[in-house]
Amino acid sequence: MLTAEERMELDVLAKHGVKIRELAKLTGRSRNTVRRYLREGEAAARRKPARKRPEKLDPFQGLRRRPRRGGGARSHSGDSALSRDRGARL
């Protein structure tokens, strides 16, 4: 982003006929930055808002499960009995 001083300097030098490449060297900015500012003026100083990208799971929104009601974590009290029935050691 160009500072106010750099923008004024670019305007003055461009009106005197200094080429874009020379302006870029004098200000230490990219040629594209200088070119964009000279073409767009003050509008180039403001950043454009990013476009909202679709999320990966948007096509599957209708297939999502409902969240559980119960505060989140499951009770694990029945797990030990299930493990004993299968012959596993705890």
Index terms:
90 residues, mainly alpha, rod-shaped
Shape: rod-shaped
Main sheet characteristics? none
Return the average pLDDT rounded to an integer: 76
- CATH level 1 class label of the domain at 4-45: Mainly Alpha
Oligomer: single chain
- Which regions contain 5 or more consecutive residues with pLDDT less than 50? none
The secondary structure category is: mainly alpha
Explain this structure to me?
By secondary structure, the chain is mainly alpha-helical. It has a domain at 4-45: Arc Repressor Mutant, subunit A. Helices cover 41% and strands 0% of the residues. The protein contains four helices and no strands. It has helices spanning 4-15, 20-27, 31-40, 79-85. Helix 2 (20-27) crosses helix 3. The longest helix is centred in the N-terminal third of the chain and has 12 residues, at 4-15. The radius of gyration is 31 Å and the shape is rod-shaped. It starts with a helix and ends in a 5-residue tail after the last helix. 4% of the residues are buried.
